[in-house]
């Protein structure tokens, strides 16, 4: 399916094109699922994992695999508390 059938900002489309990312693979955070540039950047950095910048930084420092976490934030986003729970032996 063509990327033109997915709602995305021009900036998101440009960034995705530059990095060879299909807009179809990126979950949009905008109205009606519209993909914004930040969504594409997050996808590039973390694959399909939605994670807050602070949680991502803590996980990187601690060498954690965020793929095993279930986020408790909006739309399943991994938050700092989720990473801290994993670090302290809490639930995944």
Automatic annotation (TrEMBL):
Cofactor(s) needed: (R)-lipoate
UniProt xrefs under PROSITE patterns: PSBD
GO molecular function: acetyltransferase activity; lipoic acid binding
UniProt keyword annotation of Acyltransferase present: yes
GO cellular component, one term: cytoplasm
SUPFAM superfamilies membership: Peripheral subunit-binding domain of 2-oxo acid dehydrogenase complex
Domain of life assignment: Bacteria
Keywords, comma-separated and alphabetical: Acyltransferase, Transferase
Alphabetized InterPro entries for the sequence: 2-oxoacid_DH_E2_comp, E3-bd_dom_sf, PSBD
Domain Peripheral subunit-binding (PSBD), first and last residues per copy: 7-44, 50-87
Coiled coil location: none
Family membership: Belongs to the 2-oxoacid dehydrogenase family.
Identification of the protein by name: Peripheral subunit-binding (PSBD) domain-containing protein
Species per Swiss-Prot/TrEMBL record: Helcococcus kunzii ATCC 51366
Lineage: Bacteria, Bacillati, Bacillota, Tissierellia, Tissierellales
């Amino acid at each position: 399916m063509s990327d033109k059938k997915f709602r995305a900002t021009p900036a998101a489309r440009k960034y995705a094109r530059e990095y060879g990312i299909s807009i179809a693979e990126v979950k949009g955070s905008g109205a009606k699922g519209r993909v914004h540039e930040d969504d594409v950047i997050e996808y590039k950095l973390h694959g399909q994992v939605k994670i807050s910048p602070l949680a991502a930084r803590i996980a990187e420092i601690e060498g954690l695999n965020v793929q095993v976490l279930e986020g408790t934030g909006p739309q399943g986003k991994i938050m700092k508390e989720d990473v801290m729970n994993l670090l302290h032996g809490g639930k995944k």
